[in-house]
Amino acid sequence: MTAIAPGVAEPALAAPAPRTDGVWRTMVRSKSGLAGLVLVVLITGMSYLAPLFVDDHNPVDAQNRWQGPSGEHWLGTDHSGKDVLKQVVLGGQTIIYVGFLAAVITLGVAVVLGSLAAYYRGRLDSALLQLTDIVMTVPAVVLLAVVGAFFGLTTPTTLALLLGLITWPVLMRSIRAQVLSLKEREFVEAARLQDLGNMRIIFVEIVPNMAGYILINFIIAVTNAMYALVGLYVLGLAPLAGANWGIMIHQAWTYGAIYLPEGRAFILAPVCAIALFQLGLVMLTRSLEEIFNPRLSKG
Amino acid sequence: MTETALLSVRDLRVAYRTGGGRMVEAVRGVDFDLYPEQTLALVGESGSGKSTLGLGLLRLLPRTGHITGGEVVYRGSDPEGTDVLRMEGSRLRRWRWSEVAMVFQGAMNAFNPVLKVGDQFADTMRAHLPRQRLGKAQVRERSAESLRAVRLEPGQVLDSYPHELSGGMRQRALIALALILEPRVLVLDEPTTALDLLTQRAIVDMLQELRAERGFSMIFISHDLALASELADRVATMYAGRIIESGTTPDLFRAPRHPYTVGLIRAVPPVRAGAVEPVSIPGAPPNLAQLPPGCSFAPRCGHATDACEATDPALRTVEARPAGQPSHEAACLHWESVRLDTAPAAAQDGTPNDAPAKEVAQ
Amino acid sequence: MTGEPLLSLKHVSQTFASKRGDLPAVRDVTLSVARGDVLCLVGESGCGKTTTARMAAGLAKPTAGTVEFEGADINRMDRERHRAYRKAVQFIHQDPYASLNPIRTVFATLSAPLRRHGLAKNRDEAWEQASDLLRRVELTPPANYLAKYPHQLSGGQRQRVAVARALALNPRLIIADEATSMLDVSIRVGVLRMLTRLREELDVGFVFITHDLAIARYFGAGGRIAVMYLGEVVEYGATADVIDDPRHPYTRALLSAVPDVDPGPEGRRDPGLRGVDIPSLTALPSGCTFHPRCPLFVPGTCDTAAPALRAVPGAGQEVACHVVAGKAGDPDAVGQPAGSGA
């Protein structure tokens, strides 16, 4: 479960004023960025719009267990005879929702605590740094297992909350490093000389200067949260109610789909869906990095 | 002064690739000749293309920069001359330090911070003089000699790391390094800008002496007119990638004929008695990506007429002199009416303002 | 000096700790400035002029001595008075590319202090006042500039915006740290002239830090100049006296080193220094810190006792030099303990 430790993007501090007019154009011009954006929009759109068009009734059909792909079931059926395609189309919602919500929480906590620690330094800083040490040493999987056992991770929101509250420390440290350097800039000194108020200086003058960096790390946090969540499902630590990509993989695993030629579609379909979505996100970050960090772009 | 130029530049153009795949011309057709033992000063403000020109001459442009046209001919030992723009590989590298050397503005960046100064002198000599098989003692002796010429204590400097030297000492060590192979041309890009007044004075005086002693030529790139006037025999003012006036030092400082040169001289408050009130040039230096039509100085110029917006004037001869001596030339339609003592209309009105720069500076 | 001093530095010193030992950046500097006054701090890099300015602006605490605003120590004031000091004393940075927040428009930059300190109650008022500020710094019409981001402005325009921001709180004193040194020559005088006009119209005092003597002479006309060397003031007096009739050998050397477009019949003057390099702050020379380079050096006097600033016979300014003050060879001066002045 290494996926829980979020990767952190290269600092994009050197970026001058975000070229707002150019962001869209640059992204569209870069082929991989555009492809990534299309992938992410398509998969998210499919997961969220499909319920409006697709009948979510997907009955158990004992007669048709482990069917290979056919005209009726394009991706075949699973161990209980349910249609695989329908499950894939409808099974992304939870994963994407939890991924984004967990990322929002991680980032929110990291940005707020990281900026405060860096700006005020002193006791607050060392206390918060110790807190990150503690959170980072807690084995995430074990904690989730324990929490799951006591409270039951019944809703996706609780899951997202937990994931978000575990994964913020690494990001918080890198935000802190960014603010430490930004707060030495002269425009911050100018704001302080005018007595503009600390909260305003932190969240209006400093933090928006990291917008590109935050956006890139947000996307990285989404990918990390999604992998973590799928991992939880596969390990069976999250409740296996309903149908989503993680649960599909778990079931494919436990019901031995891997040994049945007809079951391959059942295990491959959710894996591909997740992989494509992640690929889209990663491609998107690459081109965003180029936009916000001109040193990476080639001339 | 002989009549063959050491370095001849014709219609040199340099462009930078920018985001969006566009090319922006930073040097737009520059001609000049550098004669032996002469000092040419290239004077201009930010964005005038003076530093790009210097880097272009030595083919040291960053990756985004390209020489898009023109000719640079170097006549060192070969009277036929070699086309610098066609030189490649090791030939170019050898030419670069042993025939034409460059001193950059930031001496800290020019030295490798993790190598002792003495090692960097030795590396340069070994790389450029492989056939001489210089021994350790010889290398050290030559380095020491070169350092003594710039009034540094060799024993102290050779065994120091660059950061252990003060800014002025580093800059002098860099000049010593540039001169170690006895080049015929020394290109200095704002060599004293980051330095203090007294250090600057010491370096300028030292360069004068070294030149008189060794007889090399210099191209001195600076934004400081007064400094240029002290060092140079010949001055060229650059604006928006072109030379807009060139001539002898007295030509340019006593009788400038381009409104921009006049403006630059008048913009500097004097430090000595007999003060004339300085006047700034309205507007701001132009953006090279969006040059105004016609003469690029026209939007800031008090002499500008409609004709100036229609034609981009070439250099015209103000005073012709025989070959080998620089003629006075100015790229202005109205050069005949431009004088240092008669203030142009725009500079006379009381409030110099950045506002008219709107169309220029965006 | 006109009227009560607005801001005074009394025997301030600042010592930074570094790996190579203590760095005495500023040593025992006493200066003051009144309303509408201009005081130029001149010197080479490392002379302590910027550190002095930062202490005056409350950006750094002196390690000894006091900075007083209207007679009260700024580092011991109550909140209320400190706020008044903050509003009354503004600072302009050297680099207009760094001192404006790249992601905030000109309007956002100007309206923040107006709104924060209750000078503007709503957006419309802020817009109106920000426009007035831009008109003061000659960026007209203001509507063309208010919505712009710093990167859309030229260097001169940015520095004008920085000045407008400093004016937002109706300051009585502006401390400008090399405020024109990053601007192109052709527009520098325009910004200086505007600052001079503001000084006259708004009766704002200026502490102007520069390494450029010509700029000090131009902007400081009618005011005073303090020439600093290695953390100390070596010459202090009216601008005209100091620039046109310098007495300290260091000031003389500086002035003769200024490059001149038209050197005149006598040609360039040689500063006549005995050494080129400035001593390190970690190993200051004994006695007068200028003695290793000084053309007037008198062995036995200059290298043993540190000279204090004192009036020179026949000149308006104060000079810290044994020889110029006529004390060289005077047994009293030699007998002074070396540390008395520092």
Features:
heterotrimer; B: 362 residues; Rossmann fold; 14 helices; 12 strands; globular; C: alpha/beta; 4-stranded antiparallel β-sheet; 21% strand; disordered C terminus
What would you say this structure looks like, in words?
- The complex is a heterotrimer of chains A (299), B (362) and C (342).
- With 299 residues, chain A is an all-alpha fold.
- Chain A has helices at 20-29, 31-53, 84-90, 93-120, 122-137, 140-151, 156-182, 186-193, 198-206, 211-235, 245-254, 264-292.
- Chain B has 14 helices and twelve strands.
- The longest helix of chain B is centred in the middle third of the chain and has 18 residues, at 197-214.
- Chain B is globular.
- In chain C, β4 and β5 (72-73) form a beta hairpin.
- The interface between A and C is medium-sized, with 20 and 28 residues.
In short:
The complex is a heterotrimer of chains A (299), B (362) and C (342). Chain A is an all-alpha fold.
Question: Span from first to last CA of chain C?
Answer: 25 Å
Give the overall pLDDT of chain C as a whole number: 87
Order of helices and strands of chain C: EEEHEEHEHHHHEHEHEEHHEEH
Number of domains of chain C: 2
The low-confidence parts of chain C are: 329-342
Determine the structural class of chain C based on helices, strands and strand pairing.
alpha/beta
What is the count of structural domains of chain A? 2
Shape of chain A: elongated
In CATH, the homologous superfamily of the largest domain in chain A goes by the name MetI-like
CATH class of the largest domain in chain A: Mainly Alpha
What is the number of beta strands of chain C? 12
- Which class of the largest domain in chain C in CATH terms? Alpha Beta
Quote the average pLDDT of chain A.
82
Listing every helix as H and every strand as E from the N terminus to the C terminus, the arrangement of chain A reads HHHHHHHHHHHH
Task: Report helical residue fraction of chain A.
Answer: 55-70%
Category from helices, strands and their pairing of chain A: mainly alpha
Q: Using the coordinates shown, work out and report the CATH topology of the largest domain in chain A.
A: MetI-like fold
Q: Determine the N-to-C terminus distance of chain A.
A: 39 Å
Q: Which helices and strands, and how do they pair?
A:
The complex is a heterotrimer of chains A (299), B (362) and C (342).
Chain A: H1 20-29, H2 31-53, H3 84-90, H4 93-120, H5 122-137, H6 140-151, H7 156-182, H8 186-193, H9 198-206, H10 211-235, H11 245-254, H12 264-292
Helix pairs in contact in A: 1-12, 2-12, 4-5, 4-7, 4-10, 5-7, 7-10, 8-9, 10-11, 10-12, 11-12
Chain B: E1 7-17, E2 23-34, E3 39-43, H1 50-57, E4 65-74, E5 82-83, H2 89-98, E6 100-103, H3 107-110, H4 117-128, H5 136-149, H6 154-158, H7 167-179, E7 185-189, H8 197-214, E8 217-222, H9 225-231, E9 234-239, E10 242-248, H10 249-254, H11 259-267, H12 306-310, E11 316-319, E12 328-330, H13 345-348, H14 358-361
Parallel strand pairs in B: 3-8, 3-9, 6-7, 7-8
Antiparallel strand pairs in B: 1-2, 1-4, 4-5, 9-10, 10-12, 11-12
Chain C: E1 5-18, E2 21-34, E3 38-42, H1 49-56, E4 64-69, E5 72-73, H2 79-88, E6 89-92, H3 106-116, H4 123-136, H5 143-146, H6 155-167, E7 173-177, H7 185-202, E8 205-210, H8 213-219, E9 224-229, E10 232-238, H9 239-244, H10 249-257, E11 310-311, E12 318-319, H11 331-335
Subcellular location (chain B): Cell membrane
Pfam family, one (chain B): ABC_tran
Membrane topology (chain B): Peripheral membrane protein
